[in-house]
Specification:
281 residues, 14 strands, alpha+beta, single chain, flat
Length: 281
């Protein structure tokens, strides 16, 4: 695999229609919002979806979700201990982990390492791919629906197995995901040009095979992926300047957006840095 030579920045625009893109467990699983009322998707949630897509593409993943476990291991410590069985020091351990799992060399990971000569220590891997939490381009309206749900309960007189519940969803939101790939960290983990292409494809197809009761098929869609490849390792411009070159505002007369067409989406071109623009699925 060829090593990464150019810094990469990216922006992904995501459309949400009548779905809960990321529930907050500390707030009754309501969709996450900022204090200003804009919708929010955590970076952890986005990374989970990227890992799932990479797994669907046949890549080996260290942080697998329980329902997607392919190797039968019940915990991350078991997966690590039974996969990396022979190494002499922490550097060799980290190297083997990066070579084995694409998400480790992409996002990084912390491992517990023991050797015959030392007590247990932590082995930290810093990943080259950083992702911000996604924020909607304008405040979102959240609807709540009362539902009944059937649960397995102990049989008892006059006790129903149906309980009341609440389902929350965002009517419409256009979310912006920002991220970058650092060449210096990629050199340390072995993250390659080929890996970067896999991340790009995972972002383009982010919600494939991701349907659930909270996110029905078609309710979440990648609109566009903007992919900037700089001509050097440190970047021609700062990541903030690149990300901010996508200007999004409501069209004149629109107060409450209900579609992507209600927004003006303008790309301000930076000299000598033109993005690849990829349509979503």
């Amino acid at each position: 695999m060829s090593s990464l030579q150019n810094k990469i920045d990216f922006v992904v625009l995501v459309k949400v229609t009548n779905a809960n893109p990321n529930g907050d467990p500390l707030n009754g699983n309501r969709p996450r919002t900022t204090y200003a009322g804009n919708g929010e998707i955590s970076d952890v949630c986005i990374k989970r979806k990227i890992r799932n897509r990479l797994q669907d593409m046949g890549e080996k993943i260290f942080v697998q979700s329980a329902e997607r476990s392919e190797d039968g291991f019940s915990s991350l410590s078991e997966r690590a201990a039974k996969t990396i069985t022979s190494c002499n020091n922490s550097d060799e351990y980290a190297k083997q982990a990066c070579e084995t799992w694409i998400d480790v060399r992409t996002f990084g990971q912390v491992f517990a390492f023991k050797s015959d000569k030392k007590d247990g220590i932590s082995v930290g891997v810093r990943g080259p791919v950083s992702i911000h939490q996604a924020v909607s381009c304008s405040p979102v309206d959240i609807n709540s629906m009362q539902i009944t749900k059937s649960v397995n309960s102990e049989p008892a007189e006059k006790k129903s197995s149906d309980t009341m519940g609440t389902k929350h969803f965002v009517e419409f939101g256009l979310y912006k995901i920002k991220g970058s790939i650092n060449v210096q960290l990629a050199e340390k983990t072995g993250f390659s040009e080929e890996d970067a292409e896999k991340i790009k494809e995972a972002l383009r197809t982010l919600f494939v095979n991701d349907a659930s009761a909270a996110r029905p098929d078609g309710s979440m869609e990648v609109v566009k992926v903007y992919w900037w490849k700089h001509n050097n390792k440190i970047g021609q411009y700062s990541a903030a300047k690149v990300h901010d070159s996508i200007k999004i505002s409501l069209r004149e007369g629109i107060m409450i957006p209900s579609s992507v067409e209600d927004y003006n989406i303008i790309l301000e071109m930076l000299p000598d840095l033109e993005p690849e623009i990829i349509e979503g699925m």
